[in-house]
Amino acid sequence: MPLQQIAMDYTLEAALILLGLFALLFILFNLIRRPDSPFPLRPIPAYERLRRLSVQSVETGRAIHVSMGSGAWSQATPELVAGLVTLDYVEHEAARADKALCATTGNPVALLLAMNVLQLNLARAGAHTGLAGNELYFYGPDRLAYAVGSAHQAYRRPRESHALVGNYGDEGLWLAEALQPRGEPVLGGTSDPAAVALMHLSVDESIIGEDLFAAGAYLHRPRYLGSLATQDVMRFVLALLIVAGAILASLGIGG
Question: What is the DSSP string of 84-146?
């Protein structure tokens, strides 16, 4: 039977097998993960620098500006979640030292979730700044209007750095360029290939493609490491299957 026919006849079974393998690996990696011996990760300079800047922000008292992008929640859920995870990390570090931060978003759902993140971190840290001590701004879903408003708030006072993590289009380049003259580090990126190519020209450290979704594992959520390791293994397995299929097809086996 040709390989193409086999692939068509057993597509559902193959998908279930891969899903089952993913679930088993996910459980296994989370069981063997230990806080004192985390999985090795390849370095992503943007996240490493953000960690250092968070410490400097506490020392200097200058807030980090987290820009979570704009766009409809239903169309940009993964990117906005990455932005919220980044906000959670920055706010967690700031709240421990009773410091504030600046955050901007163009999505109403992200605004509500960001407020919840701030309240939870302040409650856990026992901080006294209160929600009013933080700067949290909403500029609507229009991309250019959001970029203008975000840049305006960033210019109101000195910032330790700017983290642009979320859903961006062409306005990401405009916003990054507008922030560069201040001489404050600009980090960030998005998952859209065209947008991240533009932002890469203006940010000091860029987050490219799927690296955006690894923010939790790299910043402060070790429980994400099991998921990250599982995805890496599955990519390797799929690559092996593709190579094996190409070799078999080249040799005329099954076709």
Answer: HHHHHHHHHHHHHTT---EEEES-HHHHHHHHHHHHHHHHHHT-SS-GGGSEEEE--S-HHHH
156 inside domain: yes
Beta carbons within 10 angstroms of residue 98's beta carbon: 14
pTM over the 0.90 mark: no
What CATH number does the domain containing 159 carry? 3.40.50
Do the domain assignments include residue 147? yes
CB contact at 8 A, 190 and 213: no
34 lies in some domain? no
Query: Token pair of 245, please?
Result: 């299929």
Over residues 193-233, the pLDDT tens digits come to: 888 888 888 899 988 878 888 888 888 766 677 777 787 78
The residues that bridge with 104 in the sheet, in sequence order, are 67, 137
Task: Please give the residue range of the domain that contains residue 155.
Answer: 45-221
Q: Which two tokens stand for residue 156?
A: 């109101």
Tens of pLDDT along 57-103?
A: 888 888 899 998 876 555 557 888 888 889 888 888 887 777 778 88
Q: Tell me what pLDDT residue 63 has.
A: 86
Q: Tell me if 25 is assigned to some domain.
A: no
The β-bridge partners of 137 are 104
Contact indicator for 63, 135 with CB cutoff of 8 Å: yes
**How many domains are contained in the chain?**
1
pLDDT at 195: 83
